[in-house]
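Margin note from the TA: students keep mixing up input and output lines. Inputs are the sequences; the output is the structure of the whole complex. Example:
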Amino acid sequence: MPFLKTIYLIIKKDFISEVRTLESVAATVVLALVILVICGFAFGPVFGDLEKVAAGIIWIAIAFSGTLGLSRMFGAERENGCFLGLVMSPANKGAVYLAKVITVLALLLTVEVIVLPAFAVLFDYPVFRSFWPTTLCFLLGSIGFAAVGTMMATVSSGAKRQEMLLSVILFPLMVPVLISAVRSTGQLMAGSSLADVANWVRMLVVCDMIFLVSSFIMYDLVIEE
Amino acid sequence: MELTARDIVKGFGDRVVLRGLSLSVREGDVYVLVGPNGSGKTTLMNILASATRPDSGRVMLDQEVVAARRAEYRRKVGFLSHSSMLYSHLTARENLFFFGGLYGVSELASRVDIMLEQVGLRTDGDELVRNFSRGMVQRLSIARAFLHNPRILLLDEPYSGLDQAAVSMLTGILKKFSLHKRIVVLTSHNLEAGLEVATRGGILFGHRISHEPEGKPGRGFVNEYLSLIGKKKHGAD
Amino acid sequence: MRRDAGLSKPVRILHVLEFVLVCLALYMAFIYAPIEKEQGIVQKIFYFHVAAAWNAFLAFFLIFVASIVYLASRRGVWDVVARASCEIGVMFCTATLLMGSLWARPAWNVWWTWDARLTTTLVLWFIYVGYLVLRSATGDSEKGARAAAVLGIIGFIDVPIVFFSVRWWRTMHTGIIVGRSGGGLAPGMGLALMVSVTAFTLLFVHLVILRTGSMRLSRAATGIWMSVRR
């Protein structure tokens, strides 16, 4: 099926390219860690009510570094006009979108795999008190970010001051995802059960679906020169 | 098969680049488009390739508007643009396999080998593109454009960056290519090379095709073009 | 393009009506409507705050519709309508936020409350600003118009989910829970509100039409992609 094949080809190409340079991944991870450390200075040295801010700190790190990673990834694609090459090919543009979302998601998950243990160490906080529910919420939040982020990165690609522009247009759209992700992961890390945060999980799922579907439909329009 | 551009208008901000431009190319034609710098050749090529939409006017393939069925049209087009459209961190082979896969090229492995051979990159197939010289990048781009055996070839400055051997190589490929009912449109600053393959020509000047002789462009065409460049240099318009 | 001297009769009547209604709204808000028991005269900001907020959201809806029509038809005028609506909308949105703040201070002793409606309006403001920044960063290009249209559509879809998530977020916290003043409105207040909202809606529409007109003129004079008939 050409649709799935397209997705596979693009993901494979992105992975090979990224693994060879580690350009985007490295910058993203480093920025995330820097943010954690800065928060350490901002809220420390003794961390009293960590429950209230833990999720917030982690998601700030993910959101800001994720935006940087997004910029880098799409910047690299624009280099040499490769994006044009993709546009000119008969590849289904929705498939291109999904492939990009998966690549961005992989980037975010990589960052989280490093940031979460780092947070646990730096702040002495049991991040994985309830492992699977917390992982689920981080995953859902990341999918939301990837879905909207990929779309907005494409919308803003080629424009002047692209990084600044991306942050400005991405943030307001991310609000529901951020609120839901922070609330749900925060409560889960503080000991609540999955049932307690069911509302937030539902909201995350709804947001993810809305963004994925609407972006999938409209991607063709923004990808063209 | 006929590729037609009719009444193309395109501008960027305040600047008009193309206005009232019409062009028609039939299969078997190798149309060489020349014009002074900034005359809009690249813009026109982008429009013909459907990479950019014109502000008004349309591009038609056999009387069917291209914009209506873009995906199908693009399948038939091989486009060589100013940017290489190659991924620097992939090898030449990986690049060709990627695009070949997207275009659904059959027997991809052997096709890739053939193309690499034809552009003289057989031994460099597993080298990263970022290590390629300018000429090698250009040759690989050419391979990429021809890879899926397109019926329509649009080449924007294909000779740029090529040494004499590579120029002959490209001329050879083009001559062979055009024998099989293809449409080729190319722009070129290298008049000599361009005219060697051309069966028709046109000068892009004053936002449209200002001069388009019947049949193969010859001395008259060259003179007209050179005088236009001369005029531009002295600021007269 | 019509010259101003030649405005048609119904349009001029509309302008007069608008002027009358705005004056009427001022009268009704300050003099006719009764003074609210708890908050006193400060509460009267409500009539203009709600009117501005309504128009801010109306503007956004207009951007949404215009964006869809633009993407479907590719007629440049719809892109101009969206853009004009955004510019006027951001004005009304700023006014809403400022009035909200000015109201909150004497009424509840804070400059800002994170209640669902005000916060959603703030996020809306950011989406507006993002839209304008996007337009400025992409120049007057066709690609920029498409990109902005998509942003307008996704942004609009985003607003209700922002509202709900903020509302849930708020109910998790104790603290200043602010509702609008009371449940029911005294009868005089309701009427004053309706007049105010109608008056300012007319004003909003008038401003959008003016801005659209001036943008079309400037585009016709300098650019070509909008002025060319498709």
